[in-house]
């Protein structure tokens, strides 16, 4: 029986699922598809790994582990919605909520005291940060804005902040001592097992990693971020921001880069509040206060210590006197340094660029900003974009081209798979990567406090990535640019492989270039402005950055992206959109009963998932479902039925109604499947006749607060009812 997995996740997408999934199940059931859900929400992922703390009834399956296995199987057809990548503060909130609901799971041990606590922390650390996507992504990434989405943006351009050549906004990044500067890389001639060893100045050795199996042809790289250089850089930028009268704003990816980036974030907090840390460092240590979890968590802990009020006053004074901080929420006084996962670079930098290069100050007004991106590996794509906007003005969504991406992602490629090989170095010495024969493959001199890391990328994913790039260039006739820097150690190895594997494909007549990220940005932007399309073919980090940057400029949000992961073993993973889980949307829903989440990404993912299933099974009816969904999505865009941002106007639920109406209409009007035509004629008529009544019932459900009894594990019954408030609509769906 054809089977599609639809993931249950968190926050806004999880709310939307309650409304959309019953519709999808009713429609697809007509062709015999089994649409199964798998719960990979943060709450479920926590409960799944602590069966020994739960009653039999409370225990649940480890759905993520199952899906990880499935992703390696040709049968896989998975629709993956965005999920929370939890920072430590979020993880702790989720744990507390579950405990208050009667799940006797252990608290997060910040400072594990014994082996048992260490083991518990180990389990939680696997759930922390971006723990879902890397498990499922057994393939490379193909993300693009479908034609209908681009046409919609051209006809209904989103707001775009104007740019002035006088803007004082800019990017600050390190000139030396960072990950980029210290990178070393090699390609393995034969398979081996490596270990990573720190040899301290006194000659003693600490084994950081043991017995890591590497394949022949695999590229590895290792590098180190100098703590001294980082601290000096941060100090300097805070001074600069203050002198220039611009906002200081740090942009990291503490969720995905879950080991290195919280440490860097913590250093920014420490440097900003240097006097406070100097004076009260001991108190902080005694009370287990770490700057890595952000200012909010620090302030919360101060409530519980005797001179907490005094320290708080000093913190406030420091904020007053320091450079103005960019704000996450001006009304609530939440700064850029409050929570490590509040400002996530892939979304935050494009949002700033779309907003004339400004972020919000404490008065809630837009102000020029110094965007601080410590490591210089990729920072120049943003500085080049800012320079371009200063020179040419903002991009025009009605005329600009598009930049699809082919991303090297499979099997935890590059930096996004480096967490288990990232270490905060405890003492001066050298770190060596040593192979099974005892040869030293890579070596760095290090100092205490430095962050050392190693990345891997296997050969098979690289071959698959090159093939995918050529096939997208061929399918679209669009130039494809490999964003690789011939002066960067890792990229030098990768360029060799690209040059080896490109001739395996027919590239005649195709324009395929290799340019450094800086040159690629400049080349792509000037084409983009002139309405020309350019495929970016990039590594994993740039895949992430570029698939928010261009969509946000082109179509207003990355939620409208088609995001396909052709799995290397033949299955399909269809991600919905390229953005996140929009926590702000949940807040609006619980206070006003209006959900502004746009499910377009889900509609697009479902269409390609159905297409994949049709191809696999040869089932013509499933193909008709896919084609008609495509028609419906196009009509949905043409008629502008996306959710409004304002209460008492069409919201997520109303947008689902319109998609259903158009899908049923397209099924009723097609002739390829008489079975579906007969079935959906009736459905379409019922929906059409009852449109006013259904819309009225949906609007009536808005305007007041909705208590969903939780954030990470809301009450499922309340949620289901709240997201399906139209009896008339439900009746029609239940009758299909
Ligand atoms: N694939 C995944 O699983 C991903 C997960 N994440 C996770 O999501 C969370 C939030 O991340 P954050 O970086 O703030 O990014 P989000 O993409 O959630 O939010 C940024 C803004 O984009 C707009 N937006 C995003 N998606 C939609 C949508 N479907 N409909 C309408 N508007 C949308 C909203 O703007 P507006 O205010 O205009 O409505 C939103 O506030 C984090 O936990 C992060 O780790 C992030 C990226 C990918
Ligand atoms: O997995 C995550 O935390 C975020 C992933 C992401 O931002 C992306 O793939 O675009
Ligand atoms: Mg992203």
TrEMBL record:
Residue positions binding Mg(2+): 346, 544, 548
One Gene Ontology term of the molecular function aspect: metal ion binding
Site (Critical for catalysis): 253, 416
Gene Ontology biological-process entries: glyoxylate cycle; tricarboxylic acid cycle
UniProt-listed InterPro entries: Isocitrate_DH_NADP_mono
Signal peptide annotation: none
UniProt cross-references to Pfam families, sorted A to Z: IDH
Origin superkingdom: Bacteria
Binding site for D-threo-isocitrate: 143, 543
Co-factor note (free text): Binds 1 Mg(2+) or Mn(2+) ion per subunit.
Coiled-coil residue windows: none
Cofactor: Mg(2+); Mn(2+)
Its EC number(s): 1.1.1.42
Binding site for NADP(+): 80-85, 133, 580-581, 585, 596-598, 645
Transport is among the record's keywords: no
Positions bound to substrate: 130-137
Enzyme class: oxidoreductase
Keyword Metal-binding found: yes
Keywords: Glyoxylate bypass, Magnesium, Metal-binding, NADP, Oxidoreductase, Tricarboxylic acid cycle
PANTHER family from the UniProt entry: ISOCITRATE DEHYDROGENASE (NADP(+)), ISOCITRATE DEHYDROGENASE [NADP]
Similarity comment text for this entry: Belongs to the monomeric-type IDH family.
Listed NCBIfam families: monomer_idh
Listed name of the protein: Isocitrate dehydrogenase [NADP]
Organism of provenance: Cellulophaga fucicola
